[in-house]
Design a protein that fits this description.
By secondary structure, this protein is mainly alpha-helical. It folds into two domains: about 10-70, Winged helix-like DNA-binding domain superfamily/Winged helix DNA-binding domain (Arc Repressor Mutant, subunit A); about 75-220, GntR ligand-binding domain-like (Four Helix Bundle (Hemerythrin (Met), subunit A)), CATH 1.20.120.530. The chain has eleven helices and three strands; from the N terminus they run H-E-H-H-E-E-H-H-H-H-H-H-H-H. The chain has helices at about 10-25, 35-40, 45-60, 75-100, 105-125, 125-145, 145-165, 170-190, 195-215, 220, 225-240, and strands at about 30-35, 60-65, 70. It has a three-stranded antiparallel β-sheet with strand order 1-3-2. The longest helix has 25 residues, at about 75-100. The chain is globular. The model is unreliable at about 225-240 (pLDDT under 50).
């Protein structure tokens, strides 16, 4: 008989439900959440909701809203820039290791991930494109052979999921992303670490610029609380000087 996988706990299910609602845009930045409101929506007790909300707060996806509970954190351009700076420090090295370590099975899995990306591209599914993008990059971390790449970036990908939704609204950018992924995979297949590193670095530079532009657009700015918008404007003015 096959061993049965343990079912997710109620807390895990509540956490995943809230997380997906935040990352999918169902809960927009500034949306307020309380234990009572979430427990009522999900038909669960307050205890697992409280645990899930605290975990999401620790992960910077929720912030305090005074006595009114918590609210969905704004998409902060400065924080996303920091994530992309970290990615540019880690991912070229991960790609170099992946080019040295990739087995035939790893390369076949990469082919399958590219096919899944092209399928999502053809369908126009925003969620499918984001999931496929995440799966491709996590594959590179995994093939690199250093579990810390997966651990560190896995904690940050939920913030990227939120930001990417703003970028992928533009159909003309979607095709370019998957052409770049295909080129990175080809370099890994060829065992060419320097080429894989250079390609993934330029891929991330372009992605960071697109995210920054999208988050500073009037559409995205209008969805941030007024205090956050003014703070971003002051930081932008300082960098302009």
């Amino acid at each position: 008989m096959k061993t049965l996988a343990p079912a997710p706990s109620i807390t895990d299910q509540v956490y995943t439900s809230i997380l997906d609602a935040i990352c999918d845009g169902e809960l927009e930045p500034g949306a307020r959440l309380t234990q009572d409101s979430v427990a009522s929506m999900l038909s669960v007790s307050r205890q697992p909701v409280g645990q899930a909300l605290m975990l999401l707060k620790q992960q910077r996806l929720l912030v305090d809203a005074g006595r009114r509970g918590l609210r969905v954190a704004p998409l902060e351009p400065a924080f996303l820039r920091s994530i992309y700076q970290l990615r540019q420090a880690l991912e070229p090295y991960a790609a170099t290791l992946a080019a040295a370590n990739a087995t035939a099975a790893d390369l076949a899995r990469g082919d399958a991930l590219l096919a899944a990306g092209r399928k999502a591209l053809a369908s126009g599914s925003i969620g499918g494109l984001i999931d496929a993008d995440m799966a491709f990059h996590m594959h590179v971390y995994d093939v690199a052979g250093n579990p810390l790449f997966v651990d560190v970036m896995g904690q940050l990908w939920n913030h990227l999921r939120r930001a990417m939704r703003e970028v992928i609204q533009h159909p003309e950018l979607r095709e370019a992303v998957w052409k770049e992924h295909a080129a990175i995979h080809a370099a890994i297949r060829d065992g060419d670490g320097p080429r894989a590193a250079a390609l993934i670095n330029s891929h991330l530079e372009r992605a960071a610029a697109k995210v920054d532009s999208a988050l500073l657009s009037p559409r995205a700015a209008a969805r941030r609380p007024a205090s956050t918008r003014s703070g971003s404007a002051r930081r932008g003015a300082r960098s302009a000087r």
